[in-house]
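Quick check before the chapter quiz. The format below is the same one you will see on the exam, so make sure you can read both the input and the output lines.
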Amino acid sequence: MNILGISGSPREKGNTAYAVKFALEILKKKGFKTKYISLSGKVIRPCRACFKCGKTYSCFQKDDMEGIIDAMKWCDGLIIGSPVYLGMVSGQLKTMMDRCVVMRPNYGNSLPMSGKIGAAIACGNWRNGGQELTLQNIQTFFLQMNMLVIGDGPNYSHCGAAIVGQAKKDLLGLKTVKNVAHNLAAMLKK
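Here is the expected output.
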C-alpha cells in the first residue's frame, strides 16, 4: 500500500517537514511504500473558480499541482502536515487544497480520493497555539475529498498529531506523530 506525506510549510527543512518525514519513516519500516512532497518552493497558482475543470477534468493552469494530484491519486493513505499560521493552515497548503477541486466535478458516485484514509499533523509555536483548528482545517479537506479521517488513536485519541516548538525536541508531540503513523497503518491493513 502507498502512503503520501505532504508538508504544507514554506520551509523546506522546518518542523512540519520533520514531523511528516518522521511519520513516513515509521510507515516505511512497516512495509508501506512512501512518497514525500514539500510545498516549499512549489509553484501553485490560486484556483480561479473558472469551473473549466468540470468539463476537462484538468486545470488549465500548468504548474506543480499536476504532480501533486498524480501523487494523491497514487496513494492509499495521505498524511498532511501544516504549520499553524494565525490559528489555521498555511497559505501554501490552503492554495493546494483549493486546487484539488479538479478531483471533484462530474465523477458521479466516486471521487478519486473516495475511501482513502487521511491523517493530519499540525506544528505550532505554543501548546494550544492553534493546532486543533489547523488539524480540523486539514480534516475538513479530507472530508471534502470523501476520504476517511483518523486521529492519533489510543492512548490519546485526539484529532491528530500536534507538535509544539522544535519538532525534534517535542517528545510528547512526536509520540502523537508516532501514534498517527501506527493508527494509519492499522486502518489501512483493515
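If your answer matched, good. The longest helix spans residues 171-189.
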